[in-house]
């Protein structure tokens, strides 16, 4: 049985400033360690046959400068690829504003890897989203990546996942609720959000990922 509390605590979460192609950017950052070699983690994050077992079906011209599409999810362009340490892509969902995702891998001992995932948006875009809708959307972005990296952990431990149905499992919903609360604390510290507004934002995130529990 998966220890959900330990899974939640395994990740470091932060809101930061990260430049994007158009200039100043804001980002959500996740960092966690996996008990696997850097080559294995890189392969799990770039091989379509493995991505399909924890993230989703990925199609396209999977090379530097090529474009990719995740089934029923985002697509974009492969901007940088420095095997096995750095992958940077643009990220667009449903024709919306282009954002950027950067994956950074660092060896940690003989059999461990630290993974950092940073999802950056133009600063004006995300600041306007926070002004209009509160921080719930940011919690949704962070929570979604949290769930994905939880799936990567399960994959690296040999679990056979179906990304199309995995998020409906009780343990994943429990994890999603914990991740939304964890992001709520980070976002409240970053933006000075009131307790009332952050509670509403957390509820929005929980409604998105675990609607039966909201």
Automatic annotation (TrEMBL):
It comes from the Bacteria. Belongs to the AHA1 family. Residues 36-131 form the Activator of Hsp90 ATPase homologue 1/2-like C-terminal domain. InterPro entries: ASHA1/2-like_C, START-like_dom_sf. This is Activator of HSP90 ATPase. Pfam families: AHSA1 (PF08327).
């Amino acid at each position: 049985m998966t220890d959900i509390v330990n899974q939640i605590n395994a990740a470091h979460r932060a809101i930061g400033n990260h430049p994007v192609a158009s200039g100043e950017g804001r980002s959500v950052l996740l960092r966690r360690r996996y008990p696997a070699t850097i080559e294995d983690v890189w392969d799990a994050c770039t091989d379509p046959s493995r991505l399909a077992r924890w993230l989703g079906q990925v199609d396209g011209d999977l090379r530097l400068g090529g474009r990719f599409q995740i089934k029923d999810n985002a697509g974009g362009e492969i901007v940088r690829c420095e095997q096995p340490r750095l992958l940077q892509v643009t990220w667009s969902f449903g024709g919306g504003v282009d954002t950027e995702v950067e994956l950074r891998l660092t060896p940690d001992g003989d059999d461990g890897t630290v993974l950092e995932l940073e999802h950056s948006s133009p600063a004006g875009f995300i600041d306007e989203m926070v002004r209009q809708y509160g921080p719930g959307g940011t919690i949704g972005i962070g929570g979604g990546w949290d769930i994905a990296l939880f799936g990567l952990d399960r994959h690296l431990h040999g679990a056979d996942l179906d990304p199309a149905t995995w998020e409906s499992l009780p343990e994943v919903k429990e994890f999603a609720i914990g991740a939304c609360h964890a992001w709520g604390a980070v976002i409240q510290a970053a933006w000075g959000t009131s307790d009332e507004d952050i509670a509403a934002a957390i509820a929005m995130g929980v409604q998105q990922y675990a609607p039966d529990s909201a």
